[in-house]
Design brief:
Elements: E1 8-16, E2 22-25, H1 28-34, H2 36-39, E3 48-51, H3 59-62, E4 73-78, E5 92-96, H4 97-103, E6 114-116, E7 122-128, E8 132-136, E9 146-155
Antiparallel strand pairs: 1-2, 1-3, 1-9, 4-9, 5-8, 6-7, 7-8
Protein backbone atom coordinates (compact mmCIF):
# COMPACT_ATOMS: atom_id res chain seq x y z
CA UNK A 1 0.00 0.00 0.00
CA UNK A 2 1.34 3.41 -0.98
CA UNK A 3 0.91 6.45 1.25
CA UNK A 4 -1.61 9.04 0.08
CA UNK A 5 -2.83 12.30 1.61
CA UNK A 6 -5.33 11.50 4.36
CA UNK A 7 -3.62 8.25 5.39
CA UNK A 8 -2.52 7.74 8.96
CA UNK A 9 1.05 6.43 8.99
CA UNK A 10 3.45 5.24 11.65
CA UNK A 11 7.07 6.23 11.07
CA UNK A 12 10.42 5.81 12.73
CA UNK A 13 12.76 8.75 12.22
CA UNK A 14 16.19 10.16 13.00
CA UNK A 15 16.76 13.90 12.58
CA UNK A 16 20.29 15.25 12.20
CA UNK A 17 21.79 18.71 11.80
CA UNK A 18 24.26 19.50 9.00
CA UNK A 19 27.15 18.49 11.29
CA UNK A 20 25.59 15.04 11.86
CA UNK A 21 24.41 15.75 15.41
CA UNK A 22 21.18 13.93 16.24
CA UNK A 23 18.62 16.50 17.47
CA UNK A 24 15.56 14.19 17.56
CA UNK A 25 14.66 10.56 17.00
CA UNK A 26 11.97 7.99 17.61
CA UNK A 27 14.53 5.21 17.94
CA UNK A 28 15.57 4.42 21.50
CA UNK A 29 18.94 2.93 20.47
CA UNK A 30 19.85 6.11 18.55
CA UNK A 31 18.65 8.24 21.48
CA UNK A 32 20.88 6.30 23.86
CA UNK A 33 23.90 6.41 21.55
CA UNK A 34 23.54 10.14 20.82
CA UNK A 35 22.91 11.20 24.43
CA UNK A 36 19.31 12.30 23.86
CA UNK A 37 18.04 9.63 26.25
CA UNK A 38 20.18 11.12 29.04
CA UNK A 39 19.15 14.67 28.13
CA UNK A 40 15.44 13.74 28.05
CA UNK A 41 15.11 11.01 30.73
CA UNK A 42 11.30 11.20 30.97
CA UNK A 43 10.72 10.83 27.23
CA UNK A 44 9.67 7.62 25.52
CA UNK A 45 11.34 7.16 22.15
CA UNK A 46 8.61 5.49 20.09
CA UNK A 47 7.39 5.60 16.48
CA UNK A 48 5.40 8.68 15.45
CA UNK A 49 1.85 8.47 14.10
CA UNK A 50 1.06 11.14 11.50
CA UNK A 51 -2.08 11.99 9.52
CA UNK A 52 -0.60 12.82 6.11
CA UNK A 53 -1.74 16.21 4.86
CA UNK A 54 -2.91 17.44 8.28
CA UNK A 55 0.16 19.59 8.96
CA UNK A 56 1.21 17.60 12.03
CA UNK A 57 4.89 17.54 11.02
CA UNK A 58 7.18 20.00 9.26
CA UNK A 59 6.50 20.47 5.54
CA UNK A 60 9.72 18.74 4.44
CA UNK A 61 8.63 15.48 6.08
CA UNK A 62 4.98 15.90 5.10
CA UNK A 63 5.97 16.22 1.43
CA UNK A 64 8.30 13.19 1.58
CA UNK A 65 5.65 10.70 2.77
CA UNK A 66 3.18 10.38 -0.16
CA UNK A 67 4.29 7.68 -2.56
CA UNK A 68 6.23 5.68 0.04
CA UNK A 69 5.25 2.09 0.80
CA UNK A 70 5.03 0.26 4.11
CA UNK A 71 8.51 -0.93 5.11
CA UNK A 72 10.23 1.61 2.85
CA UNK A 73 13.01 3.86 4.10
CA UNK A 74 14.13 7.18 2.69
CA UNK A 75 16.51 10.03 3.46
CA UNK A 76 15.21 13.58 3.21
CA UNK A 77 17.07 16.90 3.23
CA UNK A 78 14.81 19.62 4.59
CA UNK A 79 15.76 23.26 3.85
CA UNK A 80 14.87 25.90 6.47
CA UNK A 81 11.76 27.09 4.60
CA UNK A 82 10.30 23.56 4.80
CA UNK A 83 11.54 23.01 8.35
CA UNK A 84 11.47 25.59 11.11
CA UNK A 85 11.88 28.66 8.91
CA UNK A 86 14.71 31.12 8.53
CA UNK A 87 16.21 32.73 11.61
CA UNK A 88 14.84 36.26 11.97
CA UNK A 89 15.94 39.28 14.02
CA UNK A 90 12.23 40.12 14.26
CA UNK A 91 11.83 37.20 16.69
CA UNK A 92 14.38 38.65 19.10
CA UNK A 93 12.67 40.82 21.71
CA UNK A 94 14.16 43.26 24.20
CA UNK A 95 12.97 43.44 27.81
CA UNK A 96 13.99 45.56 30.73
CA UNK A 97 16.39 43.41 32.73
CA UNK A 98 14.56 44.25 35.98
CA UNK A 99 11.25 43.14 34.40
CA UNK A 100 12.81 39.88 33.18
CA UNK A 101 14.33 39.30 36.64
CA UNK A 102 10.86 39.69 38.19
CA UNK A 103 9.41 37.25 35.63
CA UNK A 104 12.08 34.73 36.64
CA UNK A 105 11.02 34.94 40.28
CA UNK A 106 13.81 37.30 41.28
CA UNK A 107 16.60 35.35 39.57
CA UNK A 108 18.81 37.52 37.38
CA UNK A 109 18.67 36.32 33.74
CA UNK A 110 21.74 34.61 32.28
CA UNK A 111 22.84 34.21 28.66
CA UNK A 112 21.91 30.72 27.46
CA UNK A 113 19.05 30.37 29.93
CA UNK A 114 15.65 29.41 28.53
CA UNK A 115 12.34 30.93 29.51
CA UNK A 116 8.89 29.60 28.67
CA UNK A 117 6.21 31.75 27.07
CA UNK A 118 2.58 31.68 28.17
CA UNK A 119 1.94 29.47 25.11
CA UNK A 120 4.55 26.95 26.29
CA UNK A 121 7.25 27.79 23.73
CA UNK A 122 10.88 28.01 24.84
CA UNK A 123 12.88 31.17 24.19
CA UNK A 124 16.60 31.68 24.80
CA UNK A 125 18.10 34.64 26.64
CA UNK A 126 20.88 35.82 24.31
CA UNK A 127 22.09 39.05 25.91
CA UNK A 128 21.94 40.49 29.43
CA UNK A 129 22.92 44.07 30.23
CA UNK A 130 22.15 46.28 33.23
CA UNK A 131 19.21 47.97 31.50
CA UNK A 132 18.01 45.69 28.68
CA UNK A 133 18.12 41.96 27.94
CA UNK A 134 17.40 40.16 24.67
CA UNK A 135 15.28 37.03 24.32
CA UNK A 136 15.33 34.96 21.09
CA UNK A 137 11.95 33.45 20.21
CA UNK A 138 13.19 31.81 16.98
CA UNK A 139 12.79 28.02 17.02
CA UNK A 140 16.13 26.42 18.01
CA UNK A 141 16.43 24.83 14.54
CA UNK A 142 15.46 27.97 12.59
CA UNK A 143 17.80 28.58 9.66
CA UNK A 144 19.13 25.01 9.73
CA UNK A 145 19.07 22.48 6.90
CA UNK A 146 17.84 19.26 8.49
CA UNK A 147 18.46 15.67 7.46
CA UNK A 148 15.96 12.93 8.26
CA UNK A 149 16.05 9.18 7.88
CA UNK A 150 12.46 7.93 7.69
CA UNK A 151 11.07 4.39 7.85
CA UNK A 152 7.40 3.70 7.17
CA UNK A 153 6.36 1.17 9.83
CA UNK A 154 2.63 1.01 9.03
CA UNK A 155 -0.03 2.64 6.86
CA UNK A 156 -3.55 2.72 8.29
Amino acid sequence: MTIESGDEVVIEYVGRADDGTVFDTSREDVATESGLADAQPDREFTPLTVSVGAGEVIAGIEEALPGLDEGETTSVEVPPEKGYGEWSEEHVQEYETDELTATLGGQRPEVGQYVETEQGAAAEITDVADDVSKVDFNPPLAGETLHFELEVVAIN
